[in-house]
Amino acid sequence: MRSPEQKAAQKAKAAKPASKRKPGRPKGSSTKARPTPELSPELTRVQSLILALLGRIGGLLPLTYLLLDGHFGTAAALQMACACKLQLIGKLRADSALYLPYDGPYAGRGPKRIYGDKLPPRCIPERYLCQRSTEKDIETRIYQLQARHKTFAQLLNLVCIVKTNLKTQAVAHVLVFSSDLALPADKLIDWYCLRFHLEFTFRDAKQYCGLEEFMTTNPTRVTNAANLSLFMVNLVERLLREVRHEQEEMSVLDLKAHCRGAKYLEETIKLLPETPDASLLERIITKVVGIGRIHAAPADPLPA
């Protein structure tokens, strides 16, 4: 809430007529460098995590690129990536104002012009087209070029993906960029798509591995629970990779039902006075571990 003094000052400022100045550059003014974008608390926190990771892995795994989603498609995020000595891969807003680099003659006075014609994402010149394909009445065109954005101090390696519905003529586009001007379009698109694997990992951790189920608030316990949940996602993926050679439709729920049934069976067999013979035990195991599976378990082995 503003105080009465602040309200009065605001009214006085609004009532004061704006002073007119002569057109052109004020006499005696000098060219000022573009101010460096200030990192937000969010970017500062992300930067600290990146630096901690780089310090932990050292030179064992050299990293080149930092992949961030569209929320971080800003000049400040690019500055943060450069401060970490990484190249940024991200996505720009669909309505971003982009310009071609100016390649015309020098006017002879003033600073050199760097912004050329404005770049409409859906009407990019055909000379920048690098791939075109059509699938199920959807035409996909991929353009790659170097472009400028007025909030970024440097050139951007821009890849524009334009999709057109040939039946309805509806058009949509996506702007993916990188600070690495030499990165090819196919690799830029493939590497940006890797961010969806992060989404899938957290989805699996929440849905199957208890990331949403622990109720502790102690920092150490939260860290342990979260790390254990993400570790289980990797372990499940490793186990499924082996099982799917014989059972292609095996899912996470099938694997959980299999492990649960195997544990129940192990504890039940301990209560028997005698262990069943090998052929009967194999049939029992196959039958019990298949209970609760979504996809059918393999057929029971024939008795020897």
Main structural class: alpha+beta
Radius of gyration: 30 Å
Q: What are the segments in which pLDDT stays under 50 over at least 5 consecutive residues?
A: none
Largest sheet composition: 8 strands, mixed
- Summed up, the helix count is 8
Q: Total strand count, please?
A: 8
Number of domains: 2
Question: N-to-C SSE series?
Answer: HHEHEEEEEEEHHHHH
Shape descriptor reads elongated
Distance between the termini: 85 Å
What proportion strand? 15-25%
Mean pLDDT: 86
What features would you describe in this structure?
With about 300 residues, the protein is α+β, with helices and mostly antiparallel strands. It folds into 2 domains: about 40-100 and about 115-185, no CATH class; about 200-290, no CATH class. The chain has 8 helices and 8 strands; from the N terminus they run H-H-E-H-E-E-E-E-E-E-E-H-H-H-H-H. It has helices at about 5-15, 40-55, 75-85, 185-195, 195-210, 220-245, 250-270, 280-290, and strands at about 65, 85-90, 100, 115-120, 130-135, 140-150, 155-165, 170-180. A hairpin with a 5-residue loop joins strand 7 (about 155-165) and strand 8 (about 170-180). Helix 5 (about 195-210) packs across helix 6 (about 220-245). The chain starts with a helix and ends in a 15-residue tail after the last helix.
